[in-house]
């Protein structure tokens, strides 16, 4: 890991591998707000996205390839590539003993998940991958107080506009073989919410999807996923992509009544973006101090969420004829 004292004496250096979504832009803003002298190293093959990033963060250093970011000696790396490219990025970082944050989703198909899993497992303790919603304060508060033995059913509703895909903005997410469609891109938030609250022992019981309003999509603008937990709790995840708002809600029906939370824009860090990066920076700080690097979310937990959502996606898209029949 190099000289720990030397590592702590120099400015924090964070490598950004890919800028495929909006998340790395928010991540960089949070990092710089906490560490104004941080050195940001970035690689992004799409010139237009890179230009936007450099305009917003003019002190960042751009590199021609992933190897350039690694050679800059980052203290931690944030991967935000398209899912088919994530396994290779993790592999390139595996020998460098630094924390790695993979922006969601780390995989969009079962085949991608198998590839990513093979690369992550040997270094799982220093890999974090999650929907930011896990760390939103209302979610953490409900998780701390809920009595799982008294929960009967659970419902997560995810509202997030996907109409931008029709205009060509991040439209690779609409390709179920690349981004997983709305079920993976948007639905993973609902899966993360329910698994954070109810645990990672569950099965996907059913998936339905369709296009109700946004004609021309390759995937869907609505979906419903049925989930059964090993303790008998029944759950549903509603994915609403035909909407102009971003809002996430959970309702747990319990023997004592209904527990609800709602996450919407407004206030300080309503969706957990900043808290997520603060957890990652905690991992980075541990590495710079020569302490064990421990992800706040076990890979087994993340893997269960990914396997659940990509299984739901696969079933829906085979049924809809988007993917060839098995």
UniProtKB/TrEMBL annotation:
Residues 147-245 form the GFO/IDH/MocA-like oxidoreductase domain. Keywords: NAD. The keyword Plastid does not apply. Transmembrane segments: none annotated. InterPro entries: Gfo/Idh/MocA_Oxidoreductases (IPR051450), GFO_IDH_MocA-like_dom (IPR055170), NAD(P)-bd_dom_sf (IPR036291). Pfam families: GFO_IDH_MocA_C3 (PF22725). It comes from the Bacteria. SUPFAM superfamilies: Glyceraldehyde-3-phosphate dehydrogenase-like, C-terminal domain, NAD(P)-binding Rossmann-fold domains. The keyword NAD applies. PANTHER family: BILIVERDIN REDUCTASE A. This is GFO/IDH/MocA-like oxidoreductase domain-containing protein.
């Amino acid at each position: 890991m190099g000289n720990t004292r030397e590592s702590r004496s120099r400015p924090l250096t964070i490598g950004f591998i890919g800028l495929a979504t909006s998340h790395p832009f928010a991540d960089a803003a949070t990092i710089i707000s906490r560490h104004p002298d941080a050195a940001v190293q970035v690689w992004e093959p799409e010139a237009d996205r890179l230009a936007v990033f450099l305009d917003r963060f003019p002190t960042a250093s751009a590199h021609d390839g992933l190897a350039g970011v690694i050679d800059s000696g980052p203290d931690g790396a944030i991967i935000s590539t398209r899912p088919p490219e994530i396994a290779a990025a993790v592999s390139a970082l595996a020998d460098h003993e630094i924390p790695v944050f993979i922006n969601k989703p780390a995989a969009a198909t079962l085949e991608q998940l198998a590839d990513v899993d093979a690369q992550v497992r040997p270094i799982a303790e220093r890999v974090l991958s999650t929907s930011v919603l896990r760390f939103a304060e209302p979610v953490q508060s409900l998780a701390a107080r809920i009595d799982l033995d008294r929960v009967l059913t659970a419902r997560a509703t995810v509202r997030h506009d996907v109409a931008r895909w029709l205009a060509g903005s991040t439209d690779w997410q609409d390709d179920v073989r690349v981004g997983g469609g709305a079920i993976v891109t948007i639905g993973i938030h609902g899966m993360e919410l329910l698994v954070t609250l109810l645990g990672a022992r569950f099965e996907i019981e059913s998936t339905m999807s369709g296009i109700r309003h946004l004609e021309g999509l390759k995937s869907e603008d609505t979906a419903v996923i049925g989930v059964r937990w090993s303790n008998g709790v029944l759950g549903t995840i509603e994915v609403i992509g035909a909407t102009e708002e971003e809002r996430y809600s959970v309702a747990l029906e319990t023997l004592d009544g209904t527990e609800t939370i709602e996450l919407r824009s407004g206030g300080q860090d309503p969706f957990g973006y900043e808290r997520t990066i603060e957890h990652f920076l905690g991992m980075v700080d541990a590495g710079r101090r020569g302490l064990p690097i421990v992800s706040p979310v076990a890979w087994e937990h993340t893997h269960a969420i990914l396997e659940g959502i990509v299984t739901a996606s696969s079933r829906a898209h085979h049924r809809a004829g988007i993917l060839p029949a098995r």
